[in-house]
Amino acid sequence: MSAVTIIIEVIGWAAAAIILAAYVLLSLGKLEARGYAYQWMNVAGAGGFIVNSGYNGAIPSAALNIVWAAMGLFTLWTVWRASRPARS
């Protein structure tokens, strides 16, 4: 197994751990669904899955995670916009 393959596998396993941790913390009430931490964990996890899936040729999984990351980024953007003070 090459060094690149090992790195890609580590990225995939780290992504899985991050997404699982995000879900567990959300389920335990430790994170808010529209909170920055939960959404960034999803974006980071999806990014890792994109790298791993793309490298391994799992295009449907990579495509799903592109959408997953985009949803997280969109949610981060809407939460950020809502938290800004209103302009008069």
TrEMBL record:
The chain crosses the membrane at residues 6-26, 61-80. InterPro entries: CBU_0592-like. Residues 9-82 form the CBU-0592-like domain. Keywords: Membrane, Transmembrane, Transmembrane helix. It comes from the Bacteria. This is CBU-0592-like domain-containing protein.
